[in-house]
Amino acid sequence: MKNSYSDKELLQIFNAGENPDYAFGLIVRRYQEKLYWHIRKIVISHEDANDVIQETFIKAWNNLGNFRGDSKLFTWLFRIATNEALSHLKRSRRKTWIPFIDLENKLENIMEGDYYFDGDESQLKFQKAILKLPEKQRLVFNMKYFDEMKYDEIAEILDTSVGALKASYHHAVKKIKELLMND
Amino acid sequence: METQSEQEFSGLKKENPFKVTDNYFDNLPEMIQVSINKREKAAGMPATRIIKYLKPHLALAAAILGFALIGYTGFRYFINRNSDSQIRNQEIAEYMDFYSNDVDNTIIMELLKEQEQQSIETDDDLSEEIIDYLLNENIDIYTIANQL
Q1: Are B77 and B127 in the same domain?
Q2: Contacts of residue A150 in chain B, CB cutoff 8 Å?
Q3: Looking at the domain A119-183, which fold is it?
Q4: Of B82, B102, B122, at which residue does a domain stop?
Q5: pLDDT in tens, chain A (183 residues)
Q6: Type and span of the H or E element at B53
Q7: Nearest C-alpha of chain A: how many angstroms from B24?
Q8: Are A128 and A111 in contact (CB under 8 A)?
Q9: Closest chain B residue to A40 measured between Cα atoms?
Q10: B113 and B65 share one domain
Q11: B63: distance to nearest CA of chain A, Å?
Q12: Measured by CB atoms within 10 angstroms of the end CB, which terminus of chain B is less buried, N or C?
C-alpha cells in the first residue's frame, strides 16, 4: 500500500468514489496510532480505547464526504476522537451513576490493574496525578506535554483560544507538581 | 513556560507508559473496515431502514397515545369521584328517612322527662344527707354563712 499521498490527494481519491476503501485505509494507517494514544490517555483502558477508536473511524467514514477541508484532516480526526472519548466517559459515568470524583478513582484502579500499563512506579504516580486534573486540563496537558502539539492545533481541536489553553496548561503543571510533592 | 514545566518534571520519563498487544496497529485497519461494513449492512437491511424511517413517527404516535391515556385516566377519575359522592349523599338521605320513621317523638320526650326526674331525685337525696350531717355535728347554718 503506497502511503506517500498527501491528505488532500487521499481525500480526492476518496471523494472520486472509485476506490474509497483504499483511500480510507491509507488515512486509517496514517493516523491510527496518534489517535489511539490520544484516546487511550483519556479513557485509560485498552478495551475502551479500542471501542472508541473504531467508533471514531466509523464516524469519519460516514462524514468524510462532507469534509470541506477548512481545517486539516488531522485536526478534524482529532476533534472526532476527542468528542468520542469524552462522550464515552460521560456514558460510563451515567451508566454507573458515578460522579466525577469516583470516575477518577475508577480510572486509577483500571490503570493500576491494567496489563497494558508498562510504566514504572514514578510513571504510575505521574499518571495518577494527571488523572486528578479536571477533564479539560487533563486533555490540554496530555496533548501539550506528551503529544507535543502546538497550541494552535490544540485550540482548533478543542475549539478554545490559545490564551485559555496556555492558562489551562500552566494550572495543570502547577497542580501536578503540588500533587507529586505531597504524595 | 513549556521548557520550565518540562524541567520541573525532569526526574520523570516522558515516555508513554501504556502499551498494546503485538500487531495491534497492523490489525486495526482491518477491524475498522469490518466494523464499517457491519454497520453499513445493518443500516442497509430493509427492517433497519423501515425502523429508521418509522422511528420518529412511532415516537410521536407513542407520545400522543401517552397523553391521551393520561387525559382519559384523569377524566375517568374525575367522573368516578363525582358519581361516588352523589351515591354517598343519596345513601345518607335514604338512611335518615328510613330511621326517622322508626323513632317516635313521644318516646324521645318520655326519655328526656325520665332523665330530668332522676336528676331531681338525686339532688334531693344529697340535700337531705347534708342537713343530717350538719345536725349531727351540731353546726349552725349562720356560722357557715359567716365563714363564707
Answers
A1: no
A2: none
A3: Arc Repressor Mutant, subunit A (1.10.10)
A4: B102
A5: 666 889 999 999 999 988 899 999 999 999 999 999 999 999 999 999 999 999 999 999 999 988 887 889 999 999 999 999 999 998 887 766 656 556 777 777 777 777 777 777 888 889 989 999 998 999 999 999 999 999 999 999 999 999 999 999 999 999 999 988 887
A6: helix B46-102
A7: 10
A8: yes
A9: B18
A10: no
A11: 25
A12: C
Question: Inter-chain contact A36–B16, Cβ cutoff 8 Å?
Answer: no
pTM of the full structure: 0.65
Domain count along chain B: 2
Domain that includes residue B48, residue range:
1-102
| Residue A22 sits at the chain B interface (C-beta within 8 Å) | no
A167 touching chain B per CB within 8 A: no
Q: Inspect the interface and report whether the beta carbons of A146 and B14 lie closer than 8 Å.
A: yes
**Domain coordinates of chain A in residue numbers?**
1-99, 119-183
CATH classification of A1-99, choosing from 3.40.1800.10, 1.10.1740.10, 3.40.50.300, 3.50.50.60? Answer: 1.10.1740.10
Contact B8 A173 (CB under 8 A): yes
